[in-house]
């Protein structure tokens, strides 16, 4: 099989820099920014309580901030980051996909999903993606630019606001889980992604007070960045988009494999699990007659078993949500079952992901591509 792919892009194109936002700043920097506006330092705490406790970013709602400074405060530290382009829902309102436009016209997507015991948001880390995986709509669209720390964080605020407004039936409270599985390669935008994660984890009033165990960072296998994430010492969940157990196939369907091979990627994932004590998820998109053969299930089990017992890893099989007009399509049900049975016989923990959003262009990048 020969697959034509776009060239890999590791550096995002330079476009207009996003405006600075409260979400870009550390707690100390927020105090400094407040004082530069002529306000005493305690005002930074008040502003953060509006943002993180009350989910407010309209400065006109900041009733305890002097009225005379609100306009300048809004202009300097609360510019509008996301403008809703379209919103689609399915699964009786339990899945909501939103397309957002950024200040420079770039598009990004986020997907809010209600499950029986949790509410999860899938967020984007880049506008587009430079990893060029041929079965992915985002990858084939190319990389526009990295998102800023604030643009990443704003997706979470918007989701919490949607939940508070009752947009998703049956939900109460706030997000339980965040998964970096939207547009882009998170570890290719490492600094902004980690900055946003620290804001998610920071207790109020300086952040959303979430648990690290509720945050998943996905990667196609940027080994040095996985090693750097390991050194952070945070018990985040790492998800590795493997999609093939052999270098011959993975070189073609996940082009980053030409830089870091399967063995290197799996070794880095195993080390992450060893250090953090967090089980790694191996993401595997099931593609008809491409990577769904029983012999590849056998090889996948062999590759994972070489690193130790099964406690360190879990395989998450993903029925491909095909892009309209693409030759890449989902596996047959019989082939899915045979693949699962093979892994289970080898003792590999495996689940088949719940499919959502096919009727609302649910695959990553589809909605953005349709609106370009």
From TrEMBL:
Note the PROSITE patterns from the entry.
RADICAL_SAM
Main EC class the enzyme belongs to = transferase
Q: Which reaction does it catalyse?
A: adenosine(2503) in 23S rRNA + 2 reduced [2Fe-2S]-[ferredoxin] + 2 S-adenosyl-L-methionine = 2-methyladenosine(2503) in 23S rRNA + 5'-deoxyadenosine + L-methionine + 2 oxidized [2Fe-2S]-[ferredoxin] + S-adenosyl-L-homocysteine; adenosine(37) in tRNA + 2 reduced [2Fe-2S]-[ferredoxin] + 2 S-adenosyl-L-methionine = 2-methyladenosine(37) in tRNA + 5'-deoxyadenosine + L-methionine + 2 oxidized [2Fe-2S]-[ferredoxin] + S-adenosyl-L-homocysteine
Residues the entry annotates as binding S-adenosyl-L-methionine: 184-185, 218, 241-243, 321
Q: Per the UniProt record, which EC number(s) apply here?
A: 2.1.1.192
Residues involved in [4Fe-4S] cluster binding? 129, 133, 136
Note whether S-adenosyl-L-methionine occurs among the keywords: yes
Q: Which family does it belong to?
A: Belongs to the radical SAM superfamily. RlmN family.
Remaining remarks: Reaction proceeds by a ping-pong mechanism involving intermediate methylation of a conserved cysteine residue.
| Name of this protein | Probable dual-specificity RNA methyltransferase RlmN
Can you name the source organism? Tessaracoccus lubricantis
Source organism phylogeny: Bacteria, Bacillati, Actinomycetota, Actinomycetes, Propionibacteriales
């Amino acid at each position: 099989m020969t697959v034509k792919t776009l060239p890999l892009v590791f550096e995002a194109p330079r476009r207009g820099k996003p405006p600075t936002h409260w979400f870009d700043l550390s707690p100390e920097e927020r105090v400094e920014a407040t004082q530069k506006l002529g306000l005493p330092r305690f005002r930074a705490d008040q502003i953060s309580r509006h943002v993180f406790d009350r989910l407010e970013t309209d400065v006109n709602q900041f009733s305890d901030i002097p009225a005379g400074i609100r306009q300048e405060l809004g202009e300097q530290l609360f510019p509008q980051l996301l403008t809703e382009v379209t919103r689609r829902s399915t699964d009786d309102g339990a899945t909501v996909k939103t397309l957002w436009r950024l200040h420079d016209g770039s598009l990004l997507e986020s997907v809010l999903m209600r499950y029986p015991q949790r509410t999860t948001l899938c967020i984007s880390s880049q506008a587009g993606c430079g990893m060029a995986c041929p079965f992915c709509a985002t990858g084939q669209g190319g990389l526009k630019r990295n998102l800023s720390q604030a643009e990443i964080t704003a997706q979470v605020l918007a989701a919490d606001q949607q939940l508070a407004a009752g947009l998703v039936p049956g939900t109460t409270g706030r997000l339980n889980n965040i998964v970096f599985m939207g547009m882009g390669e998170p570890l290719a935008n490492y600094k902004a992604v980690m900055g946003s994660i620290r804001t998610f984890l920071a207790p109020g009033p300086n952040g959303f007070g979430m648990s690290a165990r509720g945050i998943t960072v996905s990667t196609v296998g940027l080994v040095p960045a996985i090693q750097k994430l390991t050194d952070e010492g945070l018990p985040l969940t790492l998800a590795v988009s493997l999609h093939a157990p052999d270098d011959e196939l993975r070189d073609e369907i996940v082009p980053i494999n030409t830089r870091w091979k399967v063995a290197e990627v799996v070794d880095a994932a195993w080390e992450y699990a060893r250090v953090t004590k967090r089980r790694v998820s191996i993401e595997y998109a099931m593609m008809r007659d491409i990577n769904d053969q029983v012999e590849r299930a056998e090889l996948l089990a062999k590759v994972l078993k070489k690193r130790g017992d099964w406690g360190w890893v879990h395989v998450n099989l993903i029925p491909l949500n095909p892009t309209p007009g693409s030759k890449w399509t989902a596996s047959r049900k019989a082939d899915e079952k045979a693949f699962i049975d093979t892994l289970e016989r080898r003792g590999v923990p495996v689940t088949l992901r719940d499919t959502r959003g096919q009727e609302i262009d649910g695959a990553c990048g589809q909605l953005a591509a349709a609106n370009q």
